[in-house]
Design a protein that fits this description.
With about 400 residues, the chain is α+β, with helices and mostly antiparallel strands. It has 15 helices and nine strands. It has a nine-stranded mixed beta sheet, sandwiched between helices.
Length: about 400
């Protein structure tokens, strides 16, 4: 078994065409196989009668998800349909007698925090190891939440997950479940607590434009870029009152795609003394003009943001990229909903919805890190080439 899941990736990339494959960047990694990482999650089953080790079983479940399995029934059918030799190499010998209900009960009893810590930590190690020439000087990390609409927990509420996702690779490097009958704000600091924020810019929607969040990020060695809306009325009013008409245009982009043309114009003002937000160094205005080619309708939206990045710390173009990068994280949610049918999932019991979301994050992150730009194409490929999926998971030589 190889010591790193990355040093074998180039062996199957010759079969596919991907943009800028990353496999050659991680030769110096010394990470355990993913099955070993998953084996570190506490096993809730009794030792007596335990037929399969947890790590290989979760790894094969991930392999099924990587190949497009969207439900527990499909995962178990895919695992049962694998070649016996492939299952044996993954650590699951013999003919598995695994029912969807059995797998569901196992996932429902897993420790969600331990699972996210293990899998997100693994992805974070992979995503952070690119050499300086392949990394932005200040990497964006988006904090955003997603509701698993088909899920249910005690009290009838749905599961809501708050995640930290890298802009550049769409890898989820931290995730927490928001407490029932609460909101995302109390989960913000615990989500970032175990991450090294040095050289990171935390981006977030207006909900997280909170004084304590800003102080926490700065104390941890990072920077922030927060959108500002009506939930911070004084700050929003002060930003709108800045002399934007006299400010020069710092960045402009003009893009056409998805049936529309979008022009973005960004202006920056150095934050004046007394701006009511901790460590604010610059204020940003973005005017977004969008024209729908089909209807001809044009909409103009003005967005304000505040950042701790001082003038000269990064380029204007990079600031614009960070703002757009936060919005682009919605692509990850779209993939989970459309390609993996997450919103249609009826996995509801215990922590199973959270574990399934974690498996989807893991599959997308691994595919992105080796260069896949089309996740639907990646699922088609690994469905037909499961042995290459085992290599991606670091389970074979």
């Amino acid at each position: 078994m190889p010591s790193s899941p990355i040093d074998v990736l180039a062996r199957h990339l010759e079969h596919v065409t991907v943009a800028d494959p990353l496999s050659d960047l991680f030769d110096l990694l010394d990470l355990p196989a993913l099955a070993k990482v998953l084996d570190m999650v506490p096993d809730p089953r009794s030792r007596r009668g335990r037929r399969y080790r947890l790590g290989p079983l979760l790894a094969l479940s991930l392999l099924a998800v990587l190949g497009g399995a969207t439900s527990l029934a499909k995962i178990t059918r895919v695992i049962a349909g694998y070649d016996p030799d492939l299952r044996a190499r993954a650590g699951l010998p013999g003919t598995p007698r695994l029912a969807a209900s059995t797998l569901g009960r196992l996932l429902a009893r897993l420790d969600g925090d331990a699972f996210d810590t293990a899998t997100c930590g693994y992805l974070a190690s992979l995503a952070a190891c690119a050499p300086p020439s392949h990394r932005a000087p200040l990497a964006g990390l988006a904090v955003d939440g997603k509701t698993l609409r088909g899920s249910r927990i005690t009290g009838g509420t749905t599961v809501h997950l708050l995640a930290a996702t890298r802009h550049d690779t769409q890898t989820v490097v931290a995730q927490r479940q928001v407490e029932a009958h609460s909101n995302e704000i109390p989960a913000f600091a615990p989500l970032l607590a175990k991450l090294d924020l040095t050289g990171m810019v935390i981006t977030a929607d207006a909900l997280h434009t909170q004084h304590e969040h800003a102080r926490h990020i700065i104390a941890a060695g990072g920077h922030y870029l927060f959108l500002v809306k009506g939930n911070q009325p004084t700050l929003h009013r002060r930003l709108k009152a800045l002399p934007w008409r006299e400010a020069i245009l710092n960045d402009r982009t003009d893009e056409t795609g998805h049936g529309r043309r979008e022009i973005r114009r960004m202006k920056i003002c150095t934050a004046r003394p007394g701006l009511p937000f901790p460590h604010a160094a610059q204020a940003i205005q973005v005017k977004r003009r969008r024209t729908d080619h089909k209807t001809g309708k044009t909409t103009i939206v003005t967005i304000y943001a505040v950042t701790s990045l001082p003038p000269g710390r990064t380029t204007h173009a990079h600031l614009a990229t960070l703002i757009r990068g936060h919005w682009s994280v919605e692509t990850l949610h779209h993939i989970r909903d459309v390609t993996y049918r997450e919103d249609a999932s009826r996995v509801r019991t215990g922590t199973a919805p959270r574990i399934m979301a974690g498996l989807r994050n893991l599959a997308i992150g691994l595919a992105r890190l080796i260069g896949w730009t089309n996740i639907a194409a990646a699922t088609d490929y690994y469905r037909s080439h499961p042995a290459d999926g085992l290599q991606l998971l670091g389970l074979t030589t």
